[in-house]
Amino acid sequence: MPTLSSERRNVEEQTFIDGVINRRAGRPGALLSILQAVQDHNPHKYLPLDTLRYIATKTQIPFSRVYSVATFYALFNLDPQGNNTICICRGTACHTRGSRNLLQSVRLELKLGLEDPGDTGDGDKVLQTTPDQKFTVRTVACFGQCAMAPVVEVNHRIRGHVNERTLEREIQTIQKESE
Amino acid sequence: MSQKKLSIRIDGELISALEGQTILEAAKANGKYIPTLCALEGLTPVGACRICIVEVSGVGRLLPACTTPIQEGMSVITNSPKLTLYRRISVELLLVERNHVCAVCVSNGHCELQSMATALGISTVRFAYNYPKLPADLSHPRFVLDHNRCILCTRCVRVCAELEGAHVWNITSRGIHARVVSDLNQKWGESASCTNCGKCVQACPTGALAEKGRAVEEMVKKDDSIRSLAHRREVQA
């Protein structure tokens, strides 16, 4: 019987994953919903490699397919996420209303720096977490709320007509609350 | 059970083919050539490279021959200035995406991408090169994976999953970030599911997967063994 590696082994987590798999295994497209449920259950909203390995072994889906699915969808995270998520829209409408400046000011505010984290040169696609695990900054292509551009999603609540000042205040409120 | 016969026209010539065949299969069975890159006999077609596009009369857009099933009375054109134009664009974009430096490649002279470019008369590329910084995986004792030469045709993925049954390979991420990975993004040499059969290497159209110890121009692929294996499987099934 495969188990999660010793460090991270957690009986509760393993029983949860087993339950999810038992309920869904065999249905077409089961992998997606399994990954989704397991990620939601994780306190840091991510899928550690050990978990992926465990899911693959349990469902008898090849490792490479599990990894491929988990990396294809932007929904799945392979790294721990911050407690608060700030998601900035980089769609065309939001771009024309200055969402790049918003993104840059958030990254500076949270001291994430403006360097491109990857080596790919598309600095507009961002997924960064502060070292203290408080905030995750990410971008999205479009929320479908273009009339309210620029749009920012703070902890899964959509904010429209955002400017740098309101966003800064929003972050400060969250920081105060968590103190 | 005998399969229904359909008659279609390829380049004006009337041929009969079996129902359920794709345009590419029908053309091949009748000695008509359609250029391909991602298709390999015996593997499921995926329509990834768009080199095999053909004109079908009555259809406004170009269709990939490898995934389009034939229909009664279909009239297909396999070669025209328009098709050459689009095939050329596809190959040029493949060349732009990675670092295809033929002069230092193990597959120089035996590369399907290279010969396709030559056949389409591509001597220069009109678009700006991406020059991505990509690693090569040398961890396997017998084989090498060089991402710089990969065209993401997924032949290695399919041959490993369908013929070998090991399913070591898959594509991770998407768009310009897409890469071939083994298992959970492990080094190939550390992959527990790899059987070291080398089918992926023989199926690879470029020098992305090659045998170790080959110098420039020395890597000649032998994909006929894959073909015959797939054929034998079909006969058994």
Describe the structure.
The complex is a heterodimer of chains A (179) and B (237). Chain A is an alpha+beta fold and 179 residues long. Chain A has two domains: 6-72; 84-178, 3-Layer(aba) Sandwich (Glutaredoxin), CATH 3.40.30. Chain A contains seven helices and five strands. Chain A has helices at 11-24, 30-41, 49-59, 63-72, 92-96, 99-109, 164-178; strands spanning 84-89, 127-129, 135-140, 152-154, 157-159. In chain A, a hairpin with a 2-residue loop joins strand 4 (152-154) and strand 5 (157-159). Chain A is elongated. The model of chain A has no long low-confidence stretch (mean pLDDT 86). By secondary structure, chain B is of the alpha+beta class. Chain B has two domains: 7-79, Ubiquitin-like (UB roll) (Roll); 99-226, Alpha-Beta Plaits. Helices cover 25% and strands 16% of the residues of chain B. Chain B has a five-stranded mixed sheet, sandwiched between helices. In chain B, strand 8 (169-172) and strand 9 form a beta hairpin. Classes of the chains: A alpha+beta (179), B alpha+beta (237). Chains A and B meet through helix 3 and helix 4 of A and strand 8 of B.
